[in-house]
Known about the structure:
heterodimer, A: globular, disordered C terminus, B: alpha+beta, two-stranded antiparallel sheet
Amino acid sequence: MKAPRLTFWRGVFLLVVAAGLYSTILRFARGxxxxxxxxxxxPWGLWIGFDLLCGVGxxxxxxxxxxxxxxxxxxxxxxVIRPAIxxxxxxxxxxxxxxxxxxxxxxxxxxxxxxxxxHSVMFEVAWCVMLYTTVLAVEFSPxxxxxxxxxxxxxxxxxxxxxxIVAGVLLSTLHQSSLGSLYLIVPNKLHPLWWSxxxxxxxxxxxxxxxxCMVILESFLSQQAFRHPLGNDVREGLASMALVLLIPYALxxxxxxxxxxxxxxxxLPNLEGRLFLLEMVLxxxxxxxxxxxxxxxxxxxxxxxxxxxxxxxxxxxRLNVSVTGMEATLRxxxxxxxxxVAVTMMIVAIGFAIFGLAGRFLPVFDHDxxxxxxxxxxxxxxxxxxxxx
Amino acid sequence: xxxxLLVDITRCIGCGACKDACVETNGLPKEADDSQLSDKxxxxxxxxxxxxxQTRNVRRLCMHCESPTCASVCPVGAFHKTKDGPxxxxxxxxxxxxxxxxxxxxxxxxxxxKSTNPRVRKCILCAPRLREGKPTACAEACPxxxxxxxxxxxxxxxxxxRIKDNPGQYVQQIYGEMEGGGTSVLxxxxxxxxxxxxxxxxxxxxMGEYTEAVLSKLPNVVIVGGSLLSGLYWIINRRMTLxxxxxxxxxxxxxxxxxxxx
Lengths: 389, 262
């Protein structure tokens, strides 16, 4: 066997993983205090703000696409369902990995299974993430089973799939919104531009839109990487969907600020005001304005740029809720240590690498061959039955 | 009867005897930063500058809420309010998510950041001493009766009495009577509490209600959402099957079903 060539990106990957591993070892050998800038005044930092909140939110394409394709039967989007579910599955595994690094006592991560506190949002999130990761494993399993040609289990999974899809949508709705609910308890700490009783709904809506944009971005990237032709109409449809999801989010966000009478804070010349405007313009207003034009929705470059903007806006919103919106009241001057950034980058890099490997070795993108998509197989099967009668 | 503490800021002379007694009783290290709460200090006395160049000595310690936020938010129920008054933490349950630290409106819980097996640390209202019928170490040590120990009800009555008997000497508020649904530790002061760094905008109901109100809606989401999605799935798939059958019946050797539908 030939040794793999060291390309530029593989070199970057190795460097990032090396830095991340060093930081992880430091964290476990010397404690969270040595590896992070977290403190008593600022106990949640980048790992919660980005790895958890953004990781889970950006993985929302999995349940959104599953619902659109399997429940609403929009067949046009079938080609993206597998990559979307793979992204979500990987996303959740990486979120759990990040949690294992962030939790003070990760060896007790299983405690919520037997130690219940049904008053706790965190308890609910823990259960939903556990269950939904299992659901994603089932939803993704046909890809692996096909590759292994295990017919019997494959049939079994396909029979049970509708149940898992519905369960997945419900579990996702619960914990996507609950990530926002986590911050309902800090009305006196979180800046009023971000604290809102609407946080659960805002988090759910923004995850739907961001998940959709992630599917656009990822289908574009994998098209480049794996040279799988994907009809432009698929991404055009996704762009329309993103538009339809971004509008209610932006409206609710603005209405909520008006109703709470804090809209004027957005225009103060301070850090919070600037960050808010950046978040809204980059993540909502500009993408919506651009997507309203059919030319943008139809052009691959337009689709991808808008998706990237919306994703950046989404990330900024979650970081504002979890980090920057808290800086003023907690007065801890938190800024992530380089080791925190290194762990986050390592996790993202691992995600890219596994996605790449899966794309190469598993039938993730073989949408041109109908037999490879579980739904098409169902349709195919039904058609055969239909033809016979 | 639920016990508690009444801290009268006007009486505190800032000697730090409460802190020393706390360190002694809880076996905390003698050498540590006394300026703020930490994993090595469950209580400290802070000197706060107020108007007219004056200062006040303000004790900081766990407020021992009647409905503790930490107990509400902890995913594994590592915190609980005992009927004696103390809010206690069980390190054996804790997974280290630190949501208690985020959620506590008073910013009390501290973490062992340097440990590889870290615990949350905070005042335990001398729960072991209470069980023996003794007062907290801090109250016992206070030479100025600035911190007094007793039944919460009686302390509250005493606080009201002091405000009434000394007109103009106190602000018209007993901090902890209502805040966040009330606390076992009560404060009296002659300057507004906000000036002393106490959170001023807390609601008079337990903080946990913010999140519990949302959680209580979740079963509805599951039931309504689940039935709606299942129903939609059924209708849409039924219609597709029927369409397919119709195509198959009219046109043997048929076109793909999807095209016929859209």
